[in-house]
């Protein structure tokens, strides 16, 4: 087991107008595993990812990486070990810098000034040509930017990739390409991933296990195929039915 989360809770707002975004959430992630977290907007899935990544601190609970509890104040090594990939890939890059400059800066901040970046190897890993790294994000398509966002996350050689709705803004064919790319990277390198999405169909195609969240709590979890074929919770059944209606 590479990651363990125990009893995470998060409340936003003041007492008179508070919102409990997470309620006693626990999960485990194994090396090389792709774990899907699915639920509708407001279910708590993105909040959970922010707490795991260190972007926000939980009100209670514990996060362990390789058996060691992470403190609210993360180290560079902690951040390097868990790399976040965001939904809006274009906005995640500096608009006036080239893709190469942005990736080099991210790697240098996490790994030190002497770390070398093999832009050819990194570009080929995500199925793009190195010349595209010389462009700014506004000169690339959304799919190309998302591939380079994955490249930036993979470059520091993390142990876990945290993916927050990374295909939701892409067309169906580009979504499929990004999912195959992520799957190949995880399987080839042994990197684990947590993949957050509102789309149960997308999650079931990519992930080994699935966690279903509703109102800040986990309502069902297990093998991805088993949950799709035999859901136990009414909310999971509703999510599956909604996918079938759309298709």
SSE layout and pairings?
Elements: E1 3-12, E2 19-29, E3 34-38, H1 45-53, E4 60-65, E5 68-69, H2 76-81, E6 82-85, H3 99-111, H4 119-125, H5 142-154, E7 160-164, H6 172-189, E8 192-197, H7 200-206, E9 209-214, E10 217-223, H8 224-229, H9 234-246
Parallel strand pairs: 3-8, 3-9, 6-7, 7-8
Antiparallel strand pairs: 1-2, 1-4, 4-5, 9-10
Helix pairs in contact: 3-5, 5-6
Major beta-sheet overview: 6 strands, mixed
CATH architecture: 3-Layer(aba) Sandwich
Q: Please tell me the total number of domains.
A: 1
What is the highest CATH level, the class? Alpha Beta
Distance between the termini: 36 Å
Report the order of strands and helices: EEEHEEHEHHHEHEHEEHH
Structural class: alpha/beta
How many strands in all?
10
Strand order of the largest sheet: 6-7-8-3-9-10
Average per-residue pLDDT, rounded, comes to: 92
- Give the percentage of residues in beta strands: 25-35%
Radius of gyration: 18 Å
User: What's the multimeric state?
Assistant: single chain
Name the CATH superfamily classification: P-loop containing nucleotide triphosphate hydrolases
Q: Spans of 5+ residues with little confidence (pLDDT < 50)?
A: none
General form: globular
Q: Which bin fits the share of residues in helices? A: 25-40%
CATH topology: Rossmann fold
């Amino acid at each position: 087991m590479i990651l363990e989360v125990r009893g995470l809770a998060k409340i936003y707002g003041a007492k008179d107008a508070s919102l409990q975004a997470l309620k006693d959430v626990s999960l485990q992630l194994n090396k090389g595993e792709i774990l899907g977290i699915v639920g509708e907007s407001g279910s708590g899935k993105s909040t959970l990812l922010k707490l795991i990544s260190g972007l926000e601190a939980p009100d209670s609970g514990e996060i362990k990486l390789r058996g060691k509890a992470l403190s609210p104040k993360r180290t560079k090594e902690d951040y390097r070990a868990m790399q976040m990939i965001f939904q809006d890939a274009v906005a995640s890059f500096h608009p006036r810098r080239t893709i190469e400059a942005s990736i080099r800066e991210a790697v240098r901040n996490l790994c030190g000034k002497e770390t070398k970046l093999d832009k050819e190897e990194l570009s080929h890993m995500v199925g793009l040509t190195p010349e595209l790294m010389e462009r700014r994000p506004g000169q690339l398509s959304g799919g190309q930017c998302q591939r380079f966002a994955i490249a930036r996350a993979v470059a520091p050689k993390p142990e876990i990739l945290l993916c927050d709705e990374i295909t939701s803004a892409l067309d169906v064919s580009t979504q499929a390409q990004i999912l195959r790319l992520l799957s190949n990277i995880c399987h080839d390198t042994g990197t684990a991933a947590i993949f957050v999405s509102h789309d149960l169909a997308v999650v079931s195609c990519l992930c080994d296990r699935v966690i279903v969240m509703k109102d800040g709590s986990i309502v069902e979890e297990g093998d991805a195929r088993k949950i799709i074929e035999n859901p136990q919770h009414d909310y999971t059944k509703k999510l599956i039915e909604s996918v079938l209606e759309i298709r």
